[in-house]
Amino acid sequence: MKYNGAMFGKTLHDRAAEQAELQFRELALTSLVNMLGKQLRESLEHRIKRARKGGAWTGLTRAECASLHRQEKGSLREQVAELLLQRARARGKLIASRRAMARAQALRTASHH
Predict the structure, then answer these.
(1) What is the per-residue DSSP string for 45-64?
(2) How many domains, the chain?
(3) pLDDT, tens digit only, all 113 positions of the chain
(4) Are 10 and 4 in contact (CB under 8 A)?
(5) Do the domain assignments include residue 3?
(6) pTM recorded for the entire structure
(7) How far apart are CA 19 and CA 25, in angstroms?
(8) Of 41, 53, 59, 102, which shows the fewest CB atoms inside 10 Å?
(9) C-beta separation of 83 from 40 below 8 A
(10) Rounded to an integer, what distance in angstroms lies between the CA atom of residue 103 and that of residue 23?
């Protein structure tokens, strides 16, 4: 007998698909955090070089570039903090899903013995 529907919750297949999606989300968030972390560690000199290579910051003084760089870093820190929070939530959901799957498997095993 296949247990699904509102009374019994998600099927094993549903739970596995949910876990795969949560793992993918967690990996994507980790990748974004790493990318932004790299930008956070970028020196002012490298940032100026990268901006000018891309056609930006061409008419700015070093002081103006430094000010923009500080603003960017502040914004990046906020983004990283938000992404870390989202990643922690995704991890928590993944753990809860794994536990629910293990409980369901234990119940299924117990009901067959």
Answers:
(1) HHHHHHHHHTT-STT--HHH
(2) 1
(3) 444 444 456 787 888 899 999 999 999 999 999 999 999 999 999 999 999 999 999 999 999 999 999 999 999 999 999 999 999 999 999 999 899 888 888 988 888 76
(4) yes
(5) no
(6) 0.76
(7) 10
(8) 59
(9) no
(10) 20
